């Protein structure tokens, strides 16, 4: 496809991560050939049924240019979310960047909760218990897999 705008002006290295159940950070870098006055704006759509919304809390670099966005109260849905970052400059047209992302794939899960270890002196050894991590969307707790690393001191 042919995109309007100067080559090399679209953002680069776009990535998002969800943490603490409902917080999301997206970051990007300015296009390497973008004019110095280029400002970028992020719009996103949680699913095709939701309205498109602009970022409410931009992350800015030292020059006041938007290089990321912080989101609160993000809920993970089964559909891909749509992200669009466009730019404006007095000097030239800026290419846009867009991407569809499955939000569950970018979630960093919290650690398991209430980890306890009970050890006995006899041969029964130790009993380790925990509860699943907090998450906004996993209903089947059998989806979680755990790995225990035991180091002998």
Automatic annotation (TrEMBL):
Instruction: Keyword check for Signal, yes or no.
Output: yes
Instruction: Give this protein's Gene Ontology molecular function annotations.
Output: cytokine receptor activity
The UniProt keywords, alphabetically, are: Glycoprotein, Membrane, Receptor, Signal, Transmembrane, Transmembrane helix
Protein's membrane topology: Single-pass type I membrane protein
User: Does the record's keyword annotation contain Signal?
Assistant: yes
What main location does UniProt list?
membrane
Pfam families with a match to the protein in the record: IL6Ra-bind
Q: Which InterPro entries match?
A: FN3_sf, Ig-like_fold, Short_hematopoietin_rcpt_2_CS, TypeI_recpt_CBD
Q: Name one GO cellular component term.
A: external side of plasma membrane
| Compartments it resides in | Membrane
PANTHER family listed in its UniProt record? CYTOKINE RECEPTOR, INTERLEUKIN 5 RECEPTOR SUBUNIT ALPHA
This chain belongs to which protein, by name?
Granulocyte-macrophage colony-stimulating factor receptor subunit alpha
What is the organism field in this record? Tauraco erythrolophus
């Amino acid at each position: 496809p042919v995109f309007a705008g100067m080559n090399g002006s679209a953002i680069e290295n776009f990535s998002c991560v969800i943490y603490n159940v409902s917080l999301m950070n997206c970051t990007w870098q300015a296009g390497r050939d973008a004019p110095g006055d280029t400002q970028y704006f992020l719009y996103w759509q949680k699913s095709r049924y939701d309205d498109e919304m602009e970022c409410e809390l931009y992350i800015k670099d030292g020059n006041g240019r938007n290089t990321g966005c912080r989101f609160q109260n993000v809920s993970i849905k089964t559909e891909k979310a749509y992200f669009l970052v466009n730019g404006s400059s007095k000097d030239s047209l800026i290419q846009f960047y867009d991407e569809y992302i499955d939000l569950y794939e970018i979630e960093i899960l919290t650690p398991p909760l209430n980890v306890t270890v009970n050890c006995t002196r006899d041969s029964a050894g130790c009993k380790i218990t925990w509860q699943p991590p907090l998450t906004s969307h996993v209903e089947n707790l059998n989806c979680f897999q755990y790995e225990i690393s035991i180091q002998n001191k």
